Amino acid sequence: MGVVNVTPDSFSDGGRFLEPAAAIAHAHKLIEEGAHILDVGAESSRPGAAAVVSADEELRRLLPVLRGLRDAPVPVSVDTIKPEVMRAALAEGASMINDINALCAPGTLAVVAATDAAVCLMHMQGTPGTMQQYPGYGDVVAEVKAFLLERVRAARDAGIASERIAVDPGFGFGKTLEHNLELLRHLRDFDALGVPVLAGWSRKSSLGKITGRPAADRLAASIAAALIAAQNGARILRVHDVAATRDALSVLAAVEKKR
Ligand code: HH2
Predict the structure, then answer these.
(1) Which residue segment(s) compose the domain that 231 sits in?
(2) What sign results for the dihedral spanned by CA atoms 107, 62, 195, 181?
(3) Which of 29, 35, 126, 179 could, after both became Cys, cross-link 174 (CB 3.0–4.6 A)?
């Protein structure tokens, strides 16, 4: 899953693809590099971000990009938490919703259920504005898994079939470095939820804590984390650097002999 951030303030590439033409060109580049899904987002969820983007502004950024990608040869996901944005994005040709709030906001379950779109349900403790202040868990793996199980059940109860659902432990969303590492070590446990697992480690600050490098210099660390996630069962990797990640995955596939 290649990331297309149509934002002025994303933590690693804010402002680079705010113009629709730049975002569409970037999306095509990611497809050429081998992305199987595009994830288009118009609101940053970086730690400390205030939720200030209105639905109108989010749609003003998103819709021209979705229009430009209507004929894209891969599914287009939209990274949003708002039901009105989900509805408009799906009407404009998106076929997946990536919700960092796991369809908890009022109305969101119904919007997705009314379509045949796929959805990614992600775990987050707190909100982007405050989530990194005091992340705390008794048993992070058990708690994140229990939350995702409850959300998968809620989605199914709303009429969203399992085949349409993926889950994501939400690396970096209300988690310390140690929480993120514990979740990565135990990613296999999430297979028990019975739906594909998505993992997003690309350029994240935990990798900066490990390597001491800024977001722009975290490619090698991102690939290492992506490979570990894949080896531990992740089926979808949300990444900014598609070509390099694909190469690394090709090596893994060759070793595992199941290309
Ligand atoms: N991470 C980010 C945004 N959305 N969605 C899922 N499912 N999983 C993730 O790990 C995830 C996500 C943060 O990355 P990015 O989009 O590059 O940054 P920003 O939120 O600042 O736009």
Answers:
(1) 2-257
(2) negative
(3) 126
**Which of 238, 240, 241, 245 to mutate for ligand 1's pocket (most ligand atoms within 8 Å of CB)?**
238
Distance 45 CA to ligand 1 centre (A): 6
Q: What are phi and psi of 250, to 5 degrees?
A: -65, -40
Residue 122 in 3-state DSSP? strand
Length of the chain: 259
What would the pLDDT profile of 163-195 be if each residue is shown by its tens digit?
Answer: 999 999 999 999 999 999 999 999 999 999 999
Mutate to test the pocket of ligand 1, among 1, 46, 124 (most ligand atoms within 8 A of CB): 46
Contact predicate 141/188, CB 8 Å: no
> How many folded domains does the chain comprise?
1
Whole-angstrom distance, CA of residue 257 vs CA of residue 35: 21
Distances (CA, A) of 221 to 32, 127, 181, 212: 23, 26, 13, 11
Q: Which residues contact 258 (CB under 8 A, 6 or more apart)?
A: none
Q: Which residue, judged by its Cα, is nearest atom 1 of ligand 1?
A: 200
How far apart are the C-alpha atoms of 89 and 97, rounded to whole Å?
Answer: 9
As for ligand 1, residues whose beta carbon falls within 6 Å of it are 3, 5, 7, 10-12, 41, 44-46, 79, 98, 100, 120, 122, 168, 171, 198, 200, 238
Q: Which structure tokens are listed for 191?
A: 């297979």
CA angle 234, 240, 244 (to 5 degrees): 80
Q: Which of the residues are catalytic? A: 204, 238
pLDDT digits (tens, 9 = 90+) for 77-105: 999 999 999 999 999 999 999 999 999 99
Q: What is the pTM of this model?
A: 0.97
Residue 137's CATH number? 3.20.20.20
